[in-house]
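FAQ: What does a ligand-bound record look like?

Like this one, built around N-(5'-phosphopyridoxyl)-D-alanine:
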Amino acid sequence: MTRTVYVNGEYLPETEATVSIFDRGFLFADAVYEVTSVLDGKLIDFEGHAVRLERSLNELDMQAPCTKEELLEIHRKLVELNGIEEGLIYLQVSRGSDGDRDFVFPSEDTKPTLVLFTQNKPGLANSSAAQKGAKVISIEDIRWGRRDIKTVQLLYPSMGKMMAKAAGADDAWMIEDGYVTEGTSNNAYYVKDGVIVTRPLSNDILHGITRKAVLRLAEEAQMKIEERLFTIDEAKEADEAFTTSASAFVMPVVEVDGVALGDGTPGPIAKRLREIYLEESRAQAI
Ligand code: PDD
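The answer part, i.e. the structure of the complex:
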């Protein structure tokens, strides 16, 4: 099916949607993005994603392409036009184009480029991948120092996924100065003796919208949480582990660098958090 996508004020068939070859998103990765999930045809945590987008834009002195209310309307219209019940909405804002290539930012009157498209993913909430759990490997984290800004500089995370694939795993956790930062496209956690351990927020990791919700729900469920640096060896000795992201919710991790965690199947805390998160998200979806 040909999707209807959104580009700079227009709803178009994906085959007719275009962006300039001089767009700074294309030439310099001078762009930020958000991925929002859809369940039951409704948006999960739209507000969280909209607030983080605003922060990413501010950090890069990039203009907002439109208001939050307009963004909500575009998201909803794309869900409707494409008949999405379960899936994702990808949004990208770039600094636009002034018709040439120049490292210097273009003048203030250059309009940002706004692109959104849907990804239909029936069965996202009930995914077989989550029932099986993910195997992760560890790789060095060689990304830039502002990972709190959700930029489209995703070459290294893509390479990380390919390294994982080549090693027969599903994903990679990145390590800097001996400590795990995060997954290629998710935040990372392990559980030992009932305590959930995850890296604290800083410029070193993306401030996950799912992370925030899951930590709040874990606290409400009286689970113990420690936000501190941790090593991959700690994760290998864990009872269980998991990741969080808008695209996979809470994903159990069953193997780290070839070492099976617990009995090698998704752990009870990850499974419980996934259930609670999905239930709460569906209830709050707009
Ligand atoms: N990735 N860390 C990184 C590096 C990410 O790319 C993501 C999200 C997360 C989780 O953030 P959130 O819970 O807000 O989705 C953490 C998205 C889903 C992606 O690139 O597709």
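Follow-up question: can I read anything off the structure? Yes, for example: The two ends are 25 Å apart (CA to CA).
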